[in-house]
């Protein structure tokens, strides 16, 4: 049985849920409040995924209706967001970079995470805001100085869709261009809609797509990754402690606006991102006003 973990409700008040097929093959939503207050590191580290399977098999989880409910990020605010750059061969080429021999690593603030359907702010002075569909890893057990890639694989709880939104003028040109500045903006890491357990999906050859206003931009597969998820986790564990609930976004394939082939995101644009088996995001973009609180706008519901 493939499970999809989700968090439903207004921002900051999401409730944990799981989506699973019933005996007739119909997908239904079930509340997880009997097992946990949230889908977070504590839940994942305490065998929450397997406890959910057992509870579903025993019929112990009540069915709920998702009608009208916002979908939040599928993991409560993690301790860390670790990002990998230039991890697809074709994207490295379109960026004018030599494919890296070791993973390129940077960090994003955890307050950049937003729901997969929330309206998305473009920074007030931004002219080069760019999309990046990425496979996200969610850590399920502590990883530190791991001895092997197979040991690293056992630390992965599951996978989700992420968008690593990037302001290229802040990130790249001139003496002040820095990756952290270009990738730390409010709402710049939409995550979800679901967390799918690692045991339920093979990340090795998943199709990734991005559409902007219905037109194709990115269309690739995870087979073009230079470093696969387990290799990334093993590598990172040599330099930092990865904790349950932490999120690693693993790089983007070719087809970003920075390539020069497409215009950057403008107010009113709709960006959709899809990874096979992990669901689809949809964000409508607006111009944040200077002085506004994190560029916030009203979030969209599950049915948006």
What do these coordinates show?
This protein has 304 residues and is of the alpha+beta class. Helices cover 14% and strands 29% of the residues. The strands form five sheets. A six-stranded mixed beta sheet has the order 6-5-17-10-11-14, covered by helices on one side. It has a five-stranded mixed beta sheet with strand order 8-19-18-15-16, with no helix packed on it. A four-stranded antiparallel beta sheet has the order 1-2-3-4, with no helix packed on it. Residues 297-304 have low confidence and may be disordered.
Protein topology:
Blueprint: E1 4-8, E2 15-21, E3 27-31, H1 41-45, H2 48-57, E4 63-64, E5 81-85, H3 89-94, E6 104-108, E7 113-114, E8 120-122, E9 129-130, E10 133-139, H4 149-153, E11 156-163, E12 166-167, H5 168-171, H6 179-182, E13 189-190, E14 196-197, E15 207-212, E16 215-221, H7 229-237, E17 247-249, E18 270-275, E19 279-287
């Amino acid at each position: 049985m493939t499970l999809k973990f989700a968090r439903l409700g207004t921002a900051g008040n999401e409730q944990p849920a799981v989506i699973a097929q019933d005996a007739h093959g119909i997908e239904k939503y079930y509340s997880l409040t009997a097992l946990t207050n949230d889908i977070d590191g504590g839940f994942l580290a305490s065998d929450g995924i397997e406890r959910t399977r057992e509870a579903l098999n025993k019929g112990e989880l009540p069915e709920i209706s998702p009608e009208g409910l916002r979908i939040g990020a599928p993991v409560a605010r993690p301790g860390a967001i670790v990002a990998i750059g230039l991890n697809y061969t074709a994207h490295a080429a379109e960026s004018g970079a030599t494919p890296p021999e070791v993973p390129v690593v940077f960090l994003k603030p955890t307050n950049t995470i937003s729901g997969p359907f929330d309206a998305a702010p473009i920074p007030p002075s931004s002219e080069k805001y760019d999309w990046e569909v990425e496979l996200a890893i969610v850590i399920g057990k502590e990883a530190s100085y791991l001895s092997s890639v197979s040991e690293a694989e056992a630390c992965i709880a599951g996978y989700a869709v992420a968008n690593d939104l990037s302001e290229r003028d802040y990130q790249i040109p001139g003496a002040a261009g820095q990756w952290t500045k270009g990738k730390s903006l409010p709402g710049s890491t939409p995550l979800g809609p679901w967390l799918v357990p690692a045991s339920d999906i093979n990340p090795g050859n998943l199709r990734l797509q991005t559409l902007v206003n219905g037109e194709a931009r990115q269309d690739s597969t995870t087979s073009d990754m230079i470093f696969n998820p387990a290799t990334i986790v093993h590598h990172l564990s040599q330099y930092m402690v990865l904790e349950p609930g932490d999120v690693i976004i693993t790089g983007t394939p070719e087809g970003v606006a920075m390539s020069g082939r497409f215009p950057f995101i403008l107010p009113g644009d709709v960006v959709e991102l899809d990874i096979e088996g992990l669901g689809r995001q949809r964000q409508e973009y607006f111009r944040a006003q200077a002085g506004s609180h994190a560029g916030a706008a009203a979030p969209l519901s599950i049915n948006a």
